[in-house]
What we know:
By secondary structure, the protein is of the alpha/beta class. It has helices spanning about 40-55, 65-80, 100-115, 115-140, 145-160, 165-185, 195-205, 210-230, 250-260, 270-280, 300-315, 325-340, 345-355, 370-385, 400-410, 420-425, 445-455, 460-465, 480-485; strands at about 1-5, 10, 240, 320-325, 415, 470-475, 490-495, 500-505. It has a 4-stranded mixed β-sheet with strand order 5-6-8-7, sandwiched between helices. Strands 1-2 form a two-stranded antiparallel sheet. Strands 3-4 form a two-stranded parallel sheet.
Amino acid sequence: MTTLDRDGDPSGAPGDAPDGADASLPVRPPARPRSLRAHPAWIVVAASGAILVRATIRQRLNTDVFWHLAAGNWMLRHHSVIRADVFSYTVHGHPWLAEEWGFEVLLAWMVRHVGPDSYWLLSGGACVLAFAVSVARWRRQGAGALWIAVLCIPVAAGLAMGIAPRPQDLSYLFFALELALLTRARSRARTLVLLPPLLLVWANIHGSFIAGLGVLGIEFLASLLARRDTSATGPATSRLHVAPALRVRDALATLLGATAFSLVNPHGPRLIHYAFTVATASPLNAIVEWQSPNFHIPLFFVAIAIPTMLIVVALATGRMPVDAVALVIWLALFAATLRGVRFAPYLAIAFGGLAAPFGRALKESIRPTLLSAPVALVLSVALIVGHHPAPNAVDKADAPRAAASWLLAHRGRVFSTYTWNDYLISRDIPVFIDGRTDLYFGTGLLGTYFAVETVSRPPDPVFRRWHVRYVLWPAHSTLANYLALDPSWRLARRFPGAEVFVATTPRA
C-alpha cells in the first residue's frame, strides 16, 4: 500500500515500488543536486592560468620564430624535410639536421590555414595545457586545494619564462604529460602504453625528448632498487622513498619502447646524439637563454629560488617523506637550469610534482563558498582583457622592418646582428649567422661573429673575406661607432634604432 508523506511524495513500506515498476529491482534514491560551492584556493589557480594567457597575448614575435616559420614554409613548398642550409651565405648548402622540423611544419601550416592566432595557440595554449595537466597530477598525488594554490605561483612563473611561439612550449606540455602518465601508472600500469607514442611525437618536435627518455631511465633504475629493497614499495618510513615503484618489466618495456619510437624520425639514431650534443655545447654560453639565471629578476627568484629553499627545508627537517625519483629528476633539472635558464620551465613542472605530496600534512580550514567561482571568473577576465598587440605583431627591437625593406632594393651581402638575422631570413635576405646556432658548430663563425660584434679584432678583414657590402647594426653601438670612423665604410641610411653602412669599395 502506498501512502503520501508530509510533502505529498509517495512512500510506503520497504520493498514497495511505484506503479509500473519491477518490485524485484531496488529503487534508486533521488540524485542530490551538485553543490555549486568551490574552494577559494581555486581563485589562485584560475588567476595563474589567466596570467599565462595574459603573458601570451602581450607578446610580439621575435628572434627564432622567424626562421622557424621560414623553414616550415620551405618544407611545405618542397614537400620534403629540409636537410641543408638555404638561409645563409656562410654555410649555404652545409648539412643541417633540422631536429625541430615537426614544429616548423606545424607552425607554417597553422599560420596558413588557421591564421595569426596560431602563434598564441602554439605558445600560450601549450603552456596553459601543461599547467592544467600539472594541477590534475597534483590532485592525484593527494594535494589539497590550498596547497595546489601555493604550488601554482612558482610553477606558473616558471612556465611564463618560456612562453614564445617556439617548439620548447610544446615540449613543456609533453614533459608535463609524461610525468602525469607516470604518476597514474603507479596505480594503473596500462597507462604506460601511452608513453612510447608520446616520445615519437616529442622526438619530431624538439630535442628535449632526450630528457623524457632520461626520466624513463630513472624510473627503470628506481624499479630495480625497489625490487632489491621491498620496503621501498610499502609505506614510507624514511626521508627518501620510492612510492610505489613500477614493476621492473613494465619500466624496462616502457623505456625500450619509448627509445624505439623516438628513432622514428627523419634523422634516425643520429638525432639522440645530436640533441645531447646541442644541450651540452659550450659555444651556446654566449647566448642569454643558455646562461645562468639572474636571481635579481623577480620572476627568476619566484620560479627558481623560492622552490629550491622549500625543497631544502623539506629535506632538512625530515617531517615528510620525499619521493626519491621525483627528487632525482628535480636535481638534474636544477643543475641544468643553473647552467642555462632555458631549462627553468621544466624545473618548475618537476618541482610541482615533487612538492605536491607535502600538502598531505596541511590541514585546510577554509571552506568552499558560492563566491569562489564568480570571483575566479571575474579575476581571470580582468587579467586577460585590455589592449594587446595583434598575434602576428613584430617586436621592433628584434625586427628592423624598414631597414630590411631598404636592403631588399639593394644588391649585396648583409652583415647584421644575431637576433636581427632571424628576421632577415623571413625577408629572404641571406645572413652571416642566425639563431640556428648548432648549424655553425665547428665552423669558427660563432667566434668570428662575437669578435666583430665587440670589435675585439678588426672587422674589415672579415667583411672582405665574406664580400659583405652592407652592415645593418644598432645605432650608437661599438661597431657602428667604429664603422662611422672607418674610411672603408660610409653611412648609407639611418633608421629608428638602426644604421646601414655601405662599403666604399666594390664588393663581389
